[in-house]
Amino acid sequence: MRQVIKVLFLLLVAIGLEGCIRVSTLVSVNPDGSGLLTERVAMNISYMSMMDSSAKGDEKKKGVSLPDRDALGKSAEAMGEGVKPVSVRAFTDGSYEGYEVVYAFRNISRMQVSGAMNERPGMDSTLMVNSSPSLKDQVRFRFIKGSPATLVILLPEEQALLAPAKKGDEPVKPPSPEQQKLSLAIIRELFKGTRMTLAVDVQGDIVKTDAECRDGSRVILADIDFDQLLLEENQDETLLNLAGYGRSPDSPGDILNRVPGMRGETKRKVSVVFQ
């Protein structure tokens, strides 16, 4: 089964009942191995108003509920030793409203971050906590002190976050044009404005790296923008191949990162040397 479809499926499961959500996780690493993890969760204001108007009695919510102290503590504990929540705030960004949580960590080698992104990112902060994380589904890190320092990012075991087909995978008959058009219309409307991002940003100049997907000092582990991904012009042979149809690709990384709206690392291990 194509791993990229597994990731997309997890995202659909995670947000299918919420809609119009943006979730981003950014790990900022200092030259000494300490740093901050910033998590932002936002939902479309119009969508929240619509859901609130259809709710009854105690089910009604006014705006965004900030994570409470217990939820933050459990989330920090799940990330690893020495991770502590330092701030939480509400924010509004255009037509989106949400909250931002910042965690501090002393040693990134002792921290792990959800790689499968399968926690349900709803406005109920308690749903953000992964109470029993599996190491197999975590992004882990190894930090080597020095000048320059080396950060090794270990993506989830067995497969990378966004690895498409392997050579030799058996082709699958694609859906009919009518089926494809109907499915895309439903998904496009349901996930309009939805975006998921997971990235690592080193605080300094990169001396050397084997990262395939980066913006300056930021390594993009996974970035899925449904608005871009589901545009009509993107539904070509390449996207069908990534979706599990057609022949197997010769270069998974190249194919993955040239599809608008979907980019990320395909390797199991990524190294960044910086100072």
Gross morphology is globular
- Binned, the helix content reads 10-25%
Mean pLDDT: 75
- Largest sheet geometry: 8 strands, mixed
The number of distinct β-strands equals: 13
The secondary-structure class comes to alpha+beta
Q: Which percent band covers the strand fraction?
A: 25-35%
**Number of helices, counting only DSSP H or I runs of 4 residues or more:** 7
Q: What gap, in angstroms, lies between the N and C termini?
A: 40 Å
Task: Write the H/E string, N to C.
Answer: HEEHHEEEEEHEEEEHHHEE
Rg, rounded, reads 19 Å
How many discrete domains? 1
Uncertain runs = 1-18, 116-135, 246-252
Tell me what the structure shows:
The protein is α+β, with helices and mostly antiparallel strands and 275 residues long. The chain has one domain (3-274). The chain is built from seven helices and 13 strands. The chain has helices at residues 3-15, 45-54, 69-79, 177-190, 226-229, 237-242, 252-256, and strands spanning 21-29, 35-44, 83-93, 96-105, 112-114, 138-144, 149-154, 195-202, 206-209, 214-215, 218-225, 262-264, 269-274. Strands 1, 2, 3, 4, 8, 10, 11 and 12 form an eight-stranded mixed beta sheet that branches. Strands 5-6-7-13-9 form a five-stranded antiparallel beta sheet, with no helix packed on it. The protein is globular. The relative contact order is 0.18. Residues 1-18, 116-135 and 246-252 have low confidence and may be disordered.
How are the SSEs ordered, and which strands pair?
Elements: H1 3-15, E1 21-29, E2 35-44, H2 45-54, H3 69-79, E3 83-93, E4 96-105, E5 112-114, E6 138-144, E7 149-154, H4 177-190, E8 195-202, E9 206-209, E10 214-215, E11 218-225, H5 226-229, H6 237-242, H7 252-256, E12 262-264, E13 269-274
